[in-house]
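Researcher: Good morning. I'm working through a list of sequences from a screen, and I'd like to move beyond sequence-only analysis. For each chain I'm collecting a predicted structure so we can compare shapes side by side. This is the next one on the list. No need for commentary yet; just the structure.
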Amino acid sequence: MKKSQKPKVYFTKTITPEKLIEMYNKLDIKLTGNIGVKVHSGEKGNKNFLRPEFLKPIVDYLDGTIVETNTSCPEDFGARTTKERHQKLLAEHGWTTTFKKVVILDGDPPDEELDIPNGFILKKNYIGGKTKDYDSFLVIAHFKGHGWGGFGGALKQLSIGFGSRVAKTIMHSAGVNSDPCKVFDHFCSDKDFKECMADCASSFVNKYKGKLVYINVMKNISVDCDCDGNAKAPCMKDIGILSSTDPVAIDKACLDMIYNSNDPGKKQLIERIEAKLGPHIIECSEKLGVGSSDYELINVD
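Model: Good morning. Structure tokens for this chain:
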């Protein structure tokens, strides 16, 4: 019998800082060089984001650096729209007191342009100029709902998460607008948004192929994203931690766990996911070669 070629997704119900390290060590590759640890720092007022003290042991284990990006909204909308505003919030949320170094990737120097040769809609992606300072990345996603994406996981981190303010604006408008100050003027359809996200995720994966590891944490599962300062309280009980080297597989595994859950709160989340055509990003990313939705789930507990 041939050995399975399906991407492996490891799963544990235990959600502790120590388990994050164990889940990373289950994977076949080890990150090297200057390692960036991509997180979501949480919008001002959000109560659901993963806390810095929860992530500190794995960041220290990798000798990594916490990295983030600014949002695409006008400067006075939200607390993460500029480097200065974002740095202030990073301090308020405990990131800069917990870690010796926290880097905002975009804003200065200029964005780096990535080609998207076979994109559904977009031909170019833009990531922060400081991204090039890192050799590999641990991409940590707090898996939950999302007001635009339906859900937010590894693929959302690869696209919106690593995208500069310009890239975020382009994705939200399907290429019509690149001015963050006018992001509210040109919102695209839910279908086009998922296709743009998949386009940008593919460009990032192509650039850092073999140098990316994904961990999705399924706790504080709200229908809203951590970018929402007024996010609803969690609607489901915590599920666990997943790790993989395949972003499509890990997000599909999380979706399957939501749909197969016995938790009555899943109804709210599934309604959000389906209303925003969330699974379309899985389909599109798979077609672009980002990963596979046909995975092998391995229980660690």
